[in-house]
């Protein structure tokens, strides 16, 4: 059996969360840029509405302040916080990641961190960082051999996509493709995977099913 | 005095032709790849990059050949000593090492007396510290590290960046490729393995050398684990699998000290050990690298006796010498040490990392008097060494090339054979005139280039 198949619950958990945080970072980064534009275009509440959906209350007076709050505010959905979480997960499973994958995660964190005390981080710089995050997914998908570690990361990505679509947009009818992808990874990773069928459930049930889905993949008990 | 050989001239001739703006690439590389060591300062966890200097230490082919023979010889003797001291203890019975130096050391673990290491190998990965004496132009051994020697990942990591940033140097100089270290480890695991996968056991993400643990796991084909990933059942060690299954583990390259390995056998409050690991070890179901109890062989007091070990166990004369060392425990040596305290270097045997090192020439009269009293009261606690004027090597500081004291840690992997890795960690003091090069004392590192024939 290839060494890549030997993963403990802790490692598998870190891989899934790496995928989740990377996806959340990418989505929130892109949404931040969209709401930044909306604030400029006289929709001042746009940023508050977005972050409230993830439980974060933002306070700002202009688009630039919003950008700073979105990136560095003292809340769990700030881009720096999401990037730090992705990086922590990447660090603990460093041996499972290629240099380019790890470097991609780490460099985004350092780029954000370097500007933490500098109010001049601008939307252009943020857009550049998002490109680096997109490279992360590209680096996984271009690997000739997708090993088990990559499958866990992609499972986390799929899970987070659905989670965010439900939280941010409340969309159930657009989830079919995402659910298909999630079920594909779920089947690859576990014989006990229970297919996620978003159309059969209400939003609250969907969220509960999603949160419990990791337990079908990772057996945390011995 | 600056070390100067023809190879350095060749290096500088080529180095001057390079685009020096590319030197910034090293810092970028280390930050992007997280080539860091961690430390706690004022109760704060800090990730720090290891200061790097691009001018390498260069070791000519003939010097490496001699070093290689000498280091393999030394590790062979130290391994024999460990097997003996946890076995028949013939060297003590022969009167070569006084029993006090073994049984009085905290590093000797009497509970492991009679416990054989698989294949009688205990010194799987050694890191021996050397300096090159400018008076004799010869290498001297300063220290043997046989517990958990660290540092190999830094020159290995930076070599890859170096080849990418300055390929011409590698095209035009006959630098021996050093990226086989992972293969040396992997082959050694295979030789030691009683069955199962290999893992690198780390104390965890906040350990100072966590970067290295992940790196070494990756290049050696092992899985990086913490104690939470492992369990022992019926004297067999397993990795918990994400799917509820168990995977047998045959080799543990442990990166934690003996005291923390197993809370049921050592420190009961260890949060980083694996309960019952020692029972699996005693049953011969898992190889621990390095073996438990190795600390006795790199005790600074025992260091004095290593040349005698080589003669005793191997029947050979040592190829590499120790730095001239005195043991105050011997009356004659104590008299000499007390009379010459002002010009000797005094080391506490229980300390490491550059701590507990006193330069007599830098002490006040009162401090010398106090130290003399300590030595008289507890002679086993100290060794004294003559101050070695070891070579400086050229180092870049603020764009200038200046001399800096440097040592060399070479790594020896002992499996089926004893292999000396053709690379090493060169550490340098960042301040002029400082003899302490340890990273814990603010030192930086350089790559070590071994030249081919």
Your description of this structure?
The complex is a heterodimer of chains A (222) and B (453). With 222 residues, chain A is an all-alpha fold. In chain A, 67% of the residues lie in helices and 0% in strands. In chain A, α5 packs antiparallel against α6 (123-141). Chain A is globular, with a radius of gyration of 18 Å. The mean pLDDT of chain A is 89. Chain B is α+β, with helices and mostly antiparallel strands. Chain B folds into two domains: 6-194 and 286-317 and 389-450, no CATH class; 324-386, Dna Ligase, domain 1, CATH 3.30.1490.270. Chain B has 15 helices and 21 strands. Chain B has helices at 6-16, 24-32, 61-85, 90-93, 99-103, 153-165, 167-172, 181-192, 210-220, 258-261, 277-282, 300-303, 306-314, 331-339, 365-377, and strands spanning 36-41, 44-49, 52-59, 125-133, 138-145, 197-201, 223-225, 230-233, 236-240, 246-254, 287-289, 321-322, 325-326, 344-348, 357-359, 382-386, 392-397, 400-414, 418-420, 425-428, 444-450. In chain B, strands 3, 4, 5, 12, 17, 18, 19, 20 and 21 form a nine-stranded mixed β-sheet that branches. The model of chain B has no long low-confidence stretch (mean pLDDT 93). Chains A and B meet through α1, α4 and α5 of A and α9 and β7 of B.
Q: Keywords, please?
A:
heterodimer; A: 222 residues; mainly alpha; 9 helices; B: 453 residues; alpha+beta; Dna Ligase, domain 1; nine-stranded mixed sheet; six-stranded mixed sheet; 15 helices; 31% helix
Quick structural gist:
The complex is a heterodimer of chains A (222) and B (453). Chain A is mainly α.
Overall mean confidence score, pLDDT of chain B: 93
Order of helices and strands of chain A: HHHHHHHHH
Secondary-structure content class of chain B: alpha+beta
General form of chain B: globular
Radius of gyration of chain B: 22 Å
Give a count of the beta strands of chain A, DSSP E runs of length 2 or more.
0
* Helix proportion range of chain A: 55-70%
Based on helices, strands and strand pairing, what is the structural class of chain A? Answer: mainly alpha
Say how many strands of chain B there are: 21
**Strand composition percent of chain B:** 25-35%
Number of helix segments of chain B?
15
User: Can you count the helices of chain A?
Assistant: 9
If you compute it from the alpha carbons, what radius of gyration of chain A comes out, rounded to the nearest whole angstrom? 18 Å
Unreliable sequence segments of chain B? none
